[in-house]
């Protein structure tokens, strides 16, 4: 499934002018509040008619203002999950899920039992929404949307109203839906951690414009994305394989630059993981360091250097097929004589990578 979108819409003091293509997988619309993310999702859902534009899913045209095509929402086959669950309070979880199936088109859809298992809501079926936690409500809302048999699942900041423990509870379920159901998703978020764990494609928005688009690992490790993402949030997403859980409570991962040790990761040996490593947590050396407390020393080379407007610089480091980012001072760049192509070692403390930044691959 490929979503093609090009539209223009004007509000008072703000113009949204965006175009992109979303390939199969999880496409994240990322940007600051007010950048136009929710407006784009509402246009795809049919809840907003833009001034001009065209939206198509594969060969199905949902909107074409020039040809005066505007499919109503109920004919677009979109599953929509909002910030709040919006469950029917007088219905049980089982009945809320069944409501989604009532609107499913004929043909094979998701197996209800499998969706219940994937979302871990089997023990909740006879409860009403008032007896559920925020995280449980969102899992039920996601299940209801999936059971409507959508061609595309729209998720507008579904974790924004939850506290950190509830977000940590739901993210693994979203990863399972991505990996096992392979249901295409358009996912709105202003959380870099969520995007790093879930997205296969990132559309980066700033002031109503698309400023970057492409595979998640490329967009997130591109120094040019820093103004829209924020320097403190800049980092890279790399792929690792879980090699072993060791006796001292650490987990050993294999990466393209060498082994990485982290506090115990909840996954089985052999699992492929995604690690988000913040640029500010990476140190660089031109020789392999010795007698240091940091366990993780990855061999790589300088791919490029982007000086900032202040005293800092972002350095992209190639390690195998992945890219790391390091945020250091321009004085350090000069002192280390860093230039593209120079071999370097990236140094990372084992405790620098938070559990929220480790997800399934």
Structure description:
With 361 residues, this protein is an alpha+beta fold. It is 22% helix and 37% strand. The strands form 4 sheets. It has a 6-stranded mixed β-sheet, with helices on both faces. Strands 2-1-4-5-6 form a 5-stranded antiparallel β-sheet, covered by helices on one side. Strands 14-13-12-15-21 form a 5-stranded antiparallel β-sheet. Strand 4 and strand 5 form a beta hairpin. Helix 3 runs antiparallel to helix 4. The longest helix is centred in the middle third of the chain and has 18 residues. The model has no long low-confidence stretch (mean pLDDT 92).
Task: Describe what is shown at a glance.
With 361 residues, this protein is of the alpha+beta class. Helices cover 22% and strands 37% of the residues.
Major sheet description: 6 strands, mixed
The number of distinct helices, counting runs of at least 4 residues, comes to 9
Give the CA-based shape. globular
Q: How far apart are the first and last residues' alpha carbons, in Å? A: 21 Å
| Mean pLDDT across every amino acid position | 92
Count of individual beta strands: 21
Radius of gyration (CA) equals: 22 Å
Give the helices and strands as they follow along the chain: EEEHEEEEHHHEHEHEEHHEEEEEEEEHEE
Low-pLDDT residue spans: none
How helical, in percent, are the residues? 10-25%
Q: What structural class results from the helix and strand content?
A: alpha+beta
Strand proportion: 35-45%
Order of the strands making up the biggest sheet: 7-8-9-3-10-11
């Amino acid at each position: 499934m490929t979503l093609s979108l090009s539209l223009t819409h004007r509000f008072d003091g703000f113009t949204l002018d965006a175009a992109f293509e979303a390939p199969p997988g999880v496409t994240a619309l990322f940007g600051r509040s007010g950048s136009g993310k929710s407006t784009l999702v509402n246009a795809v859902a049919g809840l907003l008619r833009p001034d001009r534009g065209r939206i198509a899913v594969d060969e199905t045209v949902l909107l074409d203002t020039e040809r005066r095509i505007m499919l109503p929402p109920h004919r677009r086959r979109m599953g929509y999950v909002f910030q709040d669950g919006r469950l029917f309070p007088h219905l049980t979880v089982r009945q809320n899920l069944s409501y989604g199936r009532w609107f499913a088109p004929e043909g094979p859809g998701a197996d209800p039992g499998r969706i219940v298992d994937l979302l871990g809501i089997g023990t909740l079926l006879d409860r009403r929404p008032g007896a559920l936690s925020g995280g449980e409500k969102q899992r039920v809302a996601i299940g209801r949307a999936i059971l409507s048999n959508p061609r595309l699942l729209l998720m507008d900041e579904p974790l924004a109203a939850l506290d950190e423990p509830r977000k940590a509870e739901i993210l693994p379920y979203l990863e399972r839906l991505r990996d096992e159901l392979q249901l295409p998703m358009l996912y709105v978020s202003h959380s870099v951690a969520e995007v790093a764990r879930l997205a296969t494609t990132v559309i980066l928005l700033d002031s109503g414009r698309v400023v970057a688009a492409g595979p998640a690992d490329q967009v997130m490790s591109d120094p040019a994305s820093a103004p829209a993402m924020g320097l403190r949030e800049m980092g890279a997403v790399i792929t690792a394989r879980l090699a072993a859980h060791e006796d001292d409570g650490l987990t050993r991962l294999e990466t393209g630059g060498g082994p990485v040790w982290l506090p115990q990761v909840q996954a089985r040996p052999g699992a492929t993981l995604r690690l988000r490593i913040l640029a500010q947590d990476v140190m660089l050396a031109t020789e392999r360091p010795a007698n240091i407390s940091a366990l993780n020393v990855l061999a790589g080379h300088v791919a490029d250097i982007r000086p900032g407007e202040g005293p800092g610089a972002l350095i992209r480091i190639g390690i195998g097929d992945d890219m790391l980012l390091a945020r250091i001072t321009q004085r350090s760049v000069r002192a280390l004589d860093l230039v593209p192509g120079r071999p370097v070692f990236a140094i990372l403390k084992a405790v620098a990578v938070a559990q929220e930044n480790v997800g399934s691959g």
